[in-house]
């Protein structure tokens, strides 16, 4: 099931357990049962912005919150509150380039496996259709 994009920052925030100033996604471009494309326009006041650059930690958090957005939207569709999740492990993250303030990044998450609240995903982050980071991580839902 494909859905319409959600481009309203507040609507996206309502799908996440994270709250300001720790929200690292502000758009959902597409969703289906096994994938999602999320976006973030990097603001100068972002806590992971330093000297006009979006830091590695912010990029990794954006990737993780893209997974959280998928989970949050699944629970929204079931009319349930989204649970808190955690990064269980990062198998590999390859960061090729750091974006700047005012850049808009997109992350595509593809679910490889999901079982008992543990989700394994592949993530590719792009800037202007150029891959700037990729990786694989496991997220775990809090019980």
As laid out across the biggest beta sheet, the strand order is 1-2-6-7-8-5
Helix content: 10-25%
Distance between the termini: 27 Å
Instruction: Please count the helical segments.
Output: 2
Estimate the strand proportion: 35-45%
* Class from secondary-structure proportions: alpha+beta
What coarse outline follows from CA principal-axis ratios? globular
Query: Could you give the count of β-strands?
Result: 8
Strand count, sense and barrel status of the largest sheet are: 6 strands, antiparallel
Mean pLDDT comes to 92
> Which spans have pLDDT < 50 for at least 5 consecutive residues?
none
- What Rg do the Cα atoms give? 14 Å
Write the element-wise H/E pattern from the N-terminal end onward: HEEEEHEEEE
Provide the descriptors you would attach to this structure in a database record.
143 residues, alpha+beta, two-stranded antiparallel ribbon, globular
Give a verbal description of the structure.
- The structure is a single chain.
- It is built from 2 helices and 8 strands; from the N terminus they run H-E-E-E-E-H-E-E-E-E.
- It has 143 residues and is α+β, with helices and mostly antiparallel strands.
- The chain has a 6-stranded antiparallel β-sheet with strand order 1-2-6-7-8-5, with helices on one face. The chain has a two-stranded antiparallel ribbon with strand order 3-4.
- Strand 7 and strand 8 form a beta hairpin.
